[in-house]
Amino acid sequence: MLFGWTGNILHIDLTKKEIEVETPDIDIYMRYIGGKGMGGRYLRPVAELPWDHPDMVFSIFSGPLSGTISPTSGRTHIVSKSPLTGLVGDSSVGGKLATRMKQAGWDGIVIKGRCSHPVGIEIMDSTVSLRVADDLWGLDTETVHHRLAPQHGSLALIGPAAENGVKYASITVDRHFIAGRSGLGLCLAKKNIKYLLVDGTGRCKIKNPDKLKQAREDILRLTAASPALMGKFGFTCLGTGAVFDLMDNRRMMPTDNFRRTRFEHASKLNAAGYAEKYAPRKHGCLGCHILCKKIGQKNGQAVSLPEFETMSHFTALIGCMDTDLVVKANELCNHYGMDTISAASTLACRREITGIAYTEEKVLSLLTDTALQRGEGVDLGLGAAGYARKMGKPEAAMAVKGMALPAYDPRGAYGMALGYALSTRGGCHLRAYPISHEIFRKPVATDRFSFSGKARIIKIAEDLNTIIDSLTACKFTFFAAGLEEYADVFEAVTGIDTSAQDLLKKGEGIYYNERIINALNGFDIKDDDLPARFFTEPGSSGNNILIPPIKREDFIDARNKYYDIRGLDTKGLPLEEKAKTLGLVWKKP
Amino acid sequence: MEKTLDKFVDRLIKAKLGARSGPCFPLMGGQDDRIVWNRKADETRILEKVFDGLHINSLSFLRPIEPYTSIIAFLAKKALESDGTISPKDCETRTFLHDLPVIDEFNPDKIIQILKKRKSVIVAPKTTGTKEIGPAIIAHGTVSPEQGFVTISSVCFACFIKFFTDYLEALQKGIATDSDHHLFDAAIPHLGTVRKKMPNLMKGPFQNEENVYSAVIEAGFKTVEYGLVDSFFGNVSYLWNHTLYISQTGSSLDELAGCIDPVPLDGSTSAGITASSELSAHMEIIQRTDCTAILHGHPKFSVILSMDCDPVEKAACDFSDQCHIKCPKKRFADGIPIVPGEVGTGPFGLCNTLPLALEKNNSAIVYGHGLFTIGKNDFSQAFASLLSVEHACQRLYFEKIKQLRKNL
Fold this sequence. Notes:
CATH architecture of the largest domain in chain B: 3-Layer(aba) Sandwich
Helix content of chain B: 40-55%
CATH superfamily of the largest domain in chain B: Class II aldolase/adducin N-terminal domain
Helix content of chain A: 25-40%
CATH architecture of the domain at 9-199 in chain A: 4-Layer Sandwich
Structural class of chain B: alpha+beta
Number of strands of chain B: 17
Oligomer: heterodimer
Shape of chain B: globular
CATH class of the largest domain in chain B: Alpha Beta
């Protein structure tokens, strides 16, 4: 008997209009765990197909902890091939989707094929139905959410940006939670899926509830001791925007499309300013105790306040200095269903190329044009890399492997530099999340201006974050708790003896699988790199902090060490023997 | 990497947990693409196998000096006779370490088995022929050798607290054994003495920010120098110009330059996000009292005495297994209030209990955790309180022991 997992995976073939229920062996669950791991399992066999091929899979997975009292287990992981990058495309998203899937009796949903017309997929326990959604196509995310009024159920949907082909279209879950990166919204649009509504009445089976309660208390105690999470200025009170002042203070706030690292107006644009202006309330994923999401009040209406990256990129990166604009831009991106990081980064790239500064009206009109794919918006919808290439200025795109960089300048944190370059989904801060030790001093502080030791740190952190995304827990908790505590949670829920190190080993296999998928698509050392700017131009030094360009030879040395530690060849490609030791199959093409 | 290893080896020695030479010379290894050690040692052969078996980047190995070696040897032997773990009840262990597993031999597989689940493992002492090999503590890190240093420091501190707390309780219950007495007597000469003479600290109130930083750095340094901490850990803050200047989370009190966060009281910035995990308590103390300076250390006998409770009363108490968060009794050590409370801001956080206690006192002890003291203008008064409370607790502890042993 399985505990934790339901033991059922729902396969939906939209072309054939068929569903199938898979009941994997425990060995499969133990190897791939859930979330990101399971998503990678189904992506691998079709990895070489184009992202928009009808047989390309789109998977949504919970984890073994979802639907239990395990702290921060409300995350869902979505995986397909990214239209934006051609890499593994995945995103962890909050809300209540994973919980409702588990309650409906499903560990995950794997969708392939394509409908001939827009549909919504509705799942109520074991009943699966397709509903014609022609009437919803073209409508924005809020309108569709209110029309479908999911109540207890969980609703994931796309907006017009996805329908119109924006490469960084997002998926909105339960109104306020966004799977933003990788352009996964466009994957759903290509299959003609407007929404997914899931509800369930079941309960997750837990092997040892008393042990789970104890393990939960251990984690809550640790998070209570974390200033970054539960402190007066931490995520629970101010949201992820709490990082904003720190980035300013550390002189690593990407400014003017990463041409500078200090924005002089930053102190007027911080989280405290939003708190004063929008009187936010706490909100979060189902069952979470951190509640980092902030819902503010604007003209008597509830409004999702921007996350840190949105706050930073819609001000410093594009040269604007108005919190109202940030809130409006955030709303507009959510309204149409677009990733805010990519949207702002593409606008920053445009500003650098054209040399024309923005007015508020221009920013908002360009966002609308992008979502509706009209005028200049057609090119902006390609993302920063695609846009810059089309303009003949590829060097103006601050992106790695086609994905625009988030709001941490890598010249201010060398682990982040390495993490960005090596990430399997492109310019992403979350694969290795070195901000934890380079900025938050957890578990201990490391020297942010040194590559010493960082290659192995990044490798271990990638494995760690991979397993977090496979358990479908939240990375923020790991500013305080560790895998040691989550291994106890896993054991209590599943009844399977494990350890932090056992879980890390599984994370290694899951991550290596992603390197294989990317290698199958032609990615190698030439792609594991940063934009040239970071090696040639300094950041904004001052306040006794020197921000020189990154020494390229040091970066290359660290990258080579990483390849060695990760078990890749000198070109960054997987090795047959290494793959074998991880239970994976790989033959160099 | 080598520099980092040397730094934390040096710290273990400065904290009087290890020695500069001999078997108690700390051994630390770090691994990026290859393993490097701070010194050559026979143990590296086994420890490199441990590296191979774990996803880690550093290993720290210490055979501690006295009194830790005898105390840990004693507790380790007892652990091996029961469930294989030492279970101290101090705050650090409860919050971060959970328990301290013990193994009976220096064997890579056994070490790996434990370190897969826990931050540290204790290798019990061994006698081979006439040679006695003392206990060892092994700890790992995934980010920095500093993790091993922190863990080993905490293990030593926790074992020290546990032994002296248990001994007092054993005497009170009348169950102390000859080996308990023997170890206690043997440990005393190694305790050292807490210095009595006050350091000459900067005089406040301070007129500019530069002086504030200097005063905070100095207070932290002296707190460590006087041994009023567990290794280098604690926190310190000063209020100036409506801003609280507070040490950062995880910072070493003797190295606070560059590790002080200015936190405006009006909440206009979130720079305090990297401040000490006790920031909320510090801010509440500032609100409730007229102090400007706050010092927090972990002086050992203050912590030990905070956990002293009459065994008969404890047996009858509904919260006897939750003393650290729910102790219902008003308790004092030499007139200093002892309050329950956990680290941080949770429902049982010390930020809910400590500030109230400091409204009427210049000092308060948090159960099983440490001592907080305050001063009106500068750190002199707070430091004097830290020193005097620890002296008083040490004196009281030994008086209690003396009295109880007299009755044997």
